[in-house]
Amino acid sequence: MKPQHLNIINVESQSFSVRKDFYANINNRWHYHKQIELITFHKGTGTQFVGDNIRNFGPGDVVLIGSDLPHYWKYDSCFLNDKENHEPYSTVIHFFDNFLGDRFLMLPESSSLRSLMELAKRGILIKAKDATAIAAKIESVYNSQGIVRIIQLLDCLNAISKMPEHTILASIGFKQDFKEYENERMDNIYNFVISNFKNKIELEEVASIAGMSVSSFCRYFKTRTGKTFMNFLADMRVGYACKLILDNKLNMKNICHESGFNNFSCLHKNFKTITGMTPKDYRQQHNIK
User: Fold this and answer.
1) Domain 180-285 sits in which CATH superfamily?
2) Is 54 buried (19+), middle (13-18) or exposed (0-12) by CB count in 10 A?
3) Superfamily per CATH, domain 4-168
4) How many CB atoms lie within 10 A of CB 170?
5) 8, 94 contact by CB (below 8 A)
6) What is the pLDDT of residue 181?
7) What are the helix (H) ranges across the chain?
8) Which phi and psi (to 5°) does residue 167 adopt?
9) Is the pLDDT score of 17 beyond 90?
């Protein structure tokens, strides 16, 4: 599942694009682009992949995706196969960080936006208590024209930058620089993991995918990502376990198996290390019975 680079073309008469999407399969693949993306979901549910983060998405969610950060939203099958009764609906904005000129973000007054753009490199999920207000501002951008549209977008981004809390999605060690000439090997590694993390993965197997010995691969991966391969794999598995807990359809034994852990003890240890809480605490925090 190699991330595909998308060229999102802005209309010449506009400095950024804003549109409504009503199709579950539009860009429904692992992709990235230079433009920053701000999206709010009105209808539709599924699984969200942002960098190495996996979680549910649904109506009311608002997400800010930085430049070149791989992502995709995999809609649940009912939205792919039964459009008549399950039509997804989202509003999405794409803009370059310099859409107001190269110097705008360097202005003293733009310091909070500059910090926001830096955080967006890992993806930002707006907290539920703030998402409704931000979604309304996104709609104001869509319904505006001319200079007012720019003002509305700045107002929206400023509001996000002032929020005291938000959820950062991709881990700090995730590498989002996907230049073909230097990252094809990392692409292959990442694609293999995203497709196989539910199964047992041997270091020899993934080292072979990279065309390296195990020792060389381990050094290479740590240098490129800032974390060991096994830590990276654990991040993916725990992220998926979190999604399954929130789905509330499986018991913990099945969640353990479906997320790629051999036993509950292994899941419990990694879950607490990565999230700072036990699976039980996570369920209680989200009011899962």
Assistant:
1) Homeodomain-like (1.10.10.60)
2) buried
3) Jelly Rolls (2.60.120.10)
4) 24
5) yes
6) 42
7) 77-81, 111-119, 128-143, 146-161, 180-196, 203-210, 214-225, 229-247, 252-258, 264-275, 279-285
8) -110, 120
9) yes
CA-to-CA distance for 202 and 121, rounded, in angstroms?
A: 30
pLDDT at 19: 95
| pTM beyond cutoff 0.70 | yes
Domain boundaries along the sequence of the chain: 4-168, 180-285
- Each residue of 227-265: b (16+ CB within 10 Å) or e? bebebbbbbbbbbbbbbbbeeeeeebeebbeebbbeeee
Question: Tens digit of pLDDT for each residue in 212-224?
Answer: 999 999 998 888 7
Distance CA 72, CA 210 (A): 24
- Residues 6+ away with beta carbon under 8 Å from 137: 152, 155, 156, 159
Choice among 1-10, 197-206, 269-278 with the minimum mean pLDDT:
1-10
Residue 92 β-bridge partners: 19, 39
Token representation of residue 83: 């459009």
In sign, the C-alpha dihedral spanning 27, 32, 38, 40 is positive
Q: In whole angstroms, give the CA distance from residue 60 to residue 53.
A: 19
**pLDDT tens for residues 83-132?**
777 889 999 999 999 999 989 999 999 999 999 999 999 999 998 889 99
Question: Rg of the Cα trace of the chain?
Answer: 20
Block residue for tokens 């649940």: 76
Residue from 197, 208, 128 nearest 167 by CA: 128
First-to-last alpha carbon distance for the chain, in angstroms, is 35
User: Residue 203: exposed, middle, or buried by beta-carbon count in 10 A (0-12, 13-18, 19+)?
Assistant: middle
